[in-house]
Amino acid sequence: MTTTEITVQEQKYKNLYSVLTGEGMKKQIAAALPRNITPERLTRVVLSTVQRNPKLMECETKSFLSCVMACAALGLEPDGLLGQAYLVPFKDRGVLTCTLIPGYQGLMKLARQSGEIASIDAHPVRYGDDFEYRYGADPSIRHVPAERPFTVEGGESKWQEGWAPGPITHFYAVAKMKDGSVAFVVMPTWEVDQVRDDSQGYRYARDNGKDSPWISDYDRMGCKTAIRRLCKYLPASVEDNRLHRAIAMDERADRGIDQGVGEFVDVDSLPEVSEVPPPALDPADQGRRLKLGGEPKPRVTVDTSQVTEAKEPGSNG
Predict the structure, then answer these.
(1) Is residue 76 part of a domain?
(2) Which of 94, 212, 240, 250 is the most exposed place for a label (fewest CB within 10 A)?
(3) DSSP letter string over 239-290?
């Protein structure tokens, strides 16, 4: 990265910083956030995320700030580390926009906060696990993961070398209500893969050789898919509908359509981020322009007719 690029990126970050920490944006974030998160904390998380992924600074301003406000309204921290939510740049018709992707940890957090659920979790099932389930009038589910086998040599127990967990066969999510009842869903991998293949983000990454959580973190995405399906059947709180809003946003992102942030966030009153003008061309870059096929430097003619030749000291004439 050249010095000019670093300067432009630093200026973009300063402009974004001044907007996010300004009083107007701070008041809007505070009004949307739940009580357990402060505006200062969310702002720090967002700025740290931008530093880890500078591509976010190139996103269309309104889409980025809308995603920040959606995080505030949902009470999710988009750090990408805890798995609550992710801010993802996505190019749509030549314009780079920001998309909010709720993580499976975020969905579980919102489910627990709904007031109806005591616990919720999701797991992959691997070949060799002891796993059985049934639906109907008497539903039940049982899962005992396979343990790494060991051998006994000379009276000493040793883990078997070269052992690896089997391939994933199913994903499931299970929730226990506060009244003691249990709800669960089971999805075989072929069904999870259908959801993955319908995701616009995954198809774009696959076709363009880009990274995708479906590629780098298939286990977690499979668990999220099972949780998302389970949450549709869980009781919704009249006072707190953040879980179902997050699910709707996630599904719209998969289909590549507008996430509907404006349905619960006032996006029209969001501030603007100052644009950074393109840098002036450094004189040192003029020679490189010619090599790259740019406009040649203007020809300079120097009149040397009046210049006399310098003589060495002590010479005659």
Answers:
(1) yes
(2) 94
(3) S--HHHHHHHHHHHHHHTS---GGGTS-GGGPPPPPPPPPPPPPGGGHHHHH
- In which domain, by residue range, is 267 found? 1-105+238-285
Counted domains in the chain = 2
Looking at the fold, whether 126 and 100 belong to one and the same domain comes out as no
**Does residue 298 lie within any of the structural domains?**
no
Give the pLDDT of the chain (317 residues) as one tens digit per residue: 555 556 777 888 888 888 888 888 888 898 888 877 889 999 999 999 999 989 899 898 889 999 999 999 999 999 877 889 999 888 777 788 899 999 888 998 998 887 788 899 999 999 999 999 999 999 999 999 998 888 777 777 788 787 888 899 999 999 999 888 999 999 999 999 999 999 888 888 888 887 788 888 899 899 999 999 998 888 766 567 888 889 999 988 888 888 888 888 877 778 777 665 555 555 555 555 555 555 555 555 555 555 555 444 454 54
Q: Is residue 133 part of a domain?
A: yes
Cβ–Cβ < 8 Å for 172, 226: yes
HSE-CB for 27 with a 13 A CA cutoff? 5
Q: Are residues 198 and 271 in the same domain?
A: no
Is residue 291 a part of any domain in this protein? no
Q: What is the CA radius of gyration of the chain?
A: 29
